């Protein structure tokens, strides 16, 4: 009997040791993946090896999959990165390491499906008060919403889009150019244009480059891009903006952003911030510029991370903090409730005082 009990105990110890080894293998794989690939530890002031050592000590011989997921999630969250995520299908768990959003916390008590309609109502009422025509919509639908919303008054055009893709399958959309032509033909020879990318969920850099191309007359560098692989950064690549449209709009441009201006919308803010005729109003964008790198852990869990640096013309990396604005104004829940868009009103005030556009 003693021999059987000893063998059983030995089997149990081996089983537990194997379980710990497997959990550590997955944890170490995640740590090494980020250690050799993630692009912005330095800018974010994160000592990744120290964090990995600290959280590794939490893994024991009895750590379950759910507990391992929690440990990994806690390890990743301080990256404040909308393109970093972890998904474990076998335990039905997923997290995004997105930085906390001020504006989403501000409007958190509005029921999810009502947020966009209420924000739109705030914008439309504010535009109406400034003599704008009713909002027009154009472009393919996604989640029952058309791509572009636009209008104008006698002196100012307004263009809004909540995403930077035409359809998922064709991110740029084969008809994007004609849609933009139609919008800019309608807006016509106004004295200024307001581009609104607050709450823009992102999409494709090429889409943003085509938008930016409407506001230049010569080909120019929009931003720099650099990819990290095997602990080394590759060459710094210049990403260009090409003029698009017969008549580039070179008069004052105001870009509205907030901390839910994400990914390709971050990139648009970065490009327009470099243009002499553009002014950014609102609050800094989200700061999730990099493309997503997809990877799989040994246990099958899926992970995404940011393996690129997007740099401004003076080589600033705004990953995690967002493209800065020239004039900081923040929407509040009161704005939404009263249908008075303080950010949009600030844009009108700026154009009136600084550009004498009434």
Describe this structure in words.
It is built from eleven helices and 15 strands. α1 (2-37) packs antiparallel against α3 and α8 runs parallel beside α9. A hairpin with a 2-residue loop joins β7 (220-229) and β8 (232-233). It is α/β, with parallel strands linked by helices. It has helices spanning 2-37, 41-44, 48-56, 65-76, 102-106, 112-129, 176-187, 205-212, 264-272, 333-338, 342-355, and strands at 81-88, 93-97, 136-142, 145-152, 156-161, 192-196, 220-229, 232-233, 237-241, 253-257, 278-282, 292-296, 302-306, 308-311, 327-328. The strands form three sheets. The chain has a seven-stranded mixed β-sheet, with helices on both faces. The chain has a four-stranded antiparallel β-sheet with strand order 2-1-13-12, covered by helices on one side. Strands 7, 8, 9 and 14 form a four-stranded antiparallel β-sheet that branches.
In whole angstroms, the N-to-C terminal distance is 95 Å
Low-confidence stretches: 1-19
Counting DSSP H or I runs of 4 or more residues, the number of helices is: 11
Task: Kindly report the spatial arrangement of strands forming the biggest sheet.
Answer: 3-4-5-6-10-11-15
Average pLDDT taken over every residue: 93
Secondary structure tally: strands = 15
Structural class: alpha/beta
- Share of β-strand residues: 15-25%
General shape: globular
Radius of gyration from the CA trace?
24 Å
> Element order, helices and strands?
HHHHEEHHEEEHEHEEEEHEEEEEHH
Query: Percent of residues in helical segments?
Result: 25-40%
Major sheet description: 7 strands, mixed
């Amino acid at each position: 009997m003693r021999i059987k009990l000893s063998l059983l105990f030995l089997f149990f110890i081996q089983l537990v040791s194997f379980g710990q080894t497997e959990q550590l293998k997955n944890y170490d794989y995640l740590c090494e993946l980020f250690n050799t690939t993630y692009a912005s530890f330095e800018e974010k002031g994160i000592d990744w090896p120290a964090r990995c050592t600290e959280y590794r000590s939490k893994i024991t011989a009895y750590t379950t999959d759910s507990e391992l997921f929690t440990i990994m999630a806690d390890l990743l969250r301080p990256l404040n990165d909308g393109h970093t995520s972890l998904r474990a299908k076998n335990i039905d768990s997923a997290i995004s390491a997105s930085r906390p959003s001020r504006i989403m916390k501000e409007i958190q008590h509005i029921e999810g499906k009502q947020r966009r309609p209420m924000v739109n109502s705030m914008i439309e009422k504010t535009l109406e008060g400034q003599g704008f025509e009713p909002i027009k919509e154009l472009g393919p639908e996604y989640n029952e919403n058309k791509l572009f919303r636009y209008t104008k008054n006698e002196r100012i055009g307004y263009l809004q889009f909540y995403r930077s893709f035409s359809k998922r399958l064709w991110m740029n959309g084969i008809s994007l150019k004609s849609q933009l032509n139609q919008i800019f033909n309608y807006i016509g020879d106004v004295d200024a244009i307001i581009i609104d990318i607050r709450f823009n969920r992102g999409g494709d850099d090429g889409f943003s480059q085509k938008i930016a191309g409407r506001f230049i007359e010569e080909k120019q560098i929009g931003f720099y891009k650099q990819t990290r692989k095997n602990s080394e950064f590759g060459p710094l690549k210049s990403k260009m903006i090409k003029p698009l449209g017969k008549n580039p709009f070179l008069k004052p441009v105001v870009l509205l952003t907030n901390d839910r201006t994400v990914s390709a919308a971050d990139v648009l803010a970065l490009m327009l911030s470099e243009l002499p005729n553009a002014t950014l109003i609102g609050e800094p964008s989200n700061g999730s510029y990099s493309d997503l790198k997809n990877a799989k852990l040994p246990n099958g869990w899926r992970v995404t991370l940011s393996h690129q640096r997007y740099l401004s013309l003076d080589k600033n990396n705004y990953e995690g903090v967002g493209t800065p604005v020239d004039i900081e104004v923040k929407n509040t829940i009161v704005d939404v409730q009263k249908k008075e868009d303080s950010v949009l009103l600030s844009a009108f005030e700026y154009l009136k005082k600084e550009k004498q556009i009434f």
